[in-house]
Structure of DUF6788 domain-containing protein:
Amino acid sequence: MSYEPPTPPTDIPTDLVNTLNESTPERLQHIAQYAEELAEYKERETRLEEESDEIDVEERSDDLPDDVPAKATITIKEINDNRYYYWQWREGKKIRSKYKGPVNSDD
């Protein structure tokens, strides 16, 4: 671990860098967690949007619940060190999710 403060990326606005530099370690941990979750959400949103543009509606999967559209995809979410399957799909500008079940360690 370096004793020098880290150098911020050049593409981060100066006012954001200043705000981060003035933050407590606890607040920085919260910001880091939020930023990670936000990045995952935006990546998933982009992927779902791309997939919905490419998907021709196929036959419904046998395990697809009635209230989940055929264009839904399965994603894995990690919550408290446990992994779970969720159906996800786009409704307008919103991403919808429905719990499917736990990820088995055998998978």
About this structure: Residues 25-54 form the longest helix (30 residues). The radius of gyration is 19 Å.
